[in-house]
Each structure stands twice: as C-alpha cells, then as structure tokens.
Design a protein that fits this description.
30% strand, 7-stranded antiparallel beta sheet, alpha+beta, 3 helices, two-stranded antiparallel sheet, 9 strands, globular
Length: 109
C-alpha cells in the first residue's frame, strides 16, 4: 500500500477502536531527555502480534516498517509531529502525541 492509502485507511478504519487512557512516555529533544523507550516497547510488543506495522505520520510519509525499527523512530518523529502505529488490518493501534503522551487501542469484537 502506498503512503497516501495507508494514511487514508488509518483515518477511516481506526474509528471503532477502544482507547486506553493517556500514558506519559516523555520526550527526547534539546530541552528534555526523558523518552521512555523501554516502556513504549513493552506496550507495543504486548499489543501487536505482527513483526511489521504501518507507521502513519502523514499523507506522504506513511510506510510499512518492522515494529522494532518503527519504535526506534518514534522519539525522532515526536519532535515535529504526532505518530500512529497500527497493524495491517487496522484493528490495533498506538497513538503518540508530540507533547510526550501515548495511548493504545484495539477493536473489541
């Protein structure tokens, strides 16, 4: 799937998810070096069954990536934008906000 279709699919297919409360994960930039990568990885590996996830950062920058590679890039993307990770079927997702919080959700059957 190309970047634009990943972005559009994520906007439409993730509407029925049940989301967790916001969780503080910190930031990593010039004024703060407190990003909790281990905590984020723990949540991600508990949520996602797949090794690959969609990384949604915009219409032109969304792509498929290995989960561990995507997690390494989150702290960098958060300097400028919000980030969404979701599985192939768009039934599980993690949202990261550039203010240093995240939440996760999945469709309840």
């Amino acid at each position: 799937m190309d970047s634009r279709n990943i972005y559009i699919s994520s906007q439409h297919k993730l509407t029925g998810l049940t989301w967790s409360e916001l969780i503080y994960v910190g930031l990593n930039h010039e004024k703060a070096d407190e990003y909790k990568a281990d905590k984020v990885a723990e949540y991600a590996h508990a949520l996602f069954d797949e090794r690959e996830v969609y990384v949604v950062v915009g219409r032109h920058d969304s792509h498929l990536a290995l989960l561990d590679d995507a997690l390494k890039g989150v702290s960098t993307w958060l300097k400028t934008t919000d980030v969404l990770l979701c599985n192939w079927s768009f039934t599980k997702a993690m949202k990261f906000y550039k203010i240093g919080v995240m939440n996760y959700g999945e469709k309840v059957s």
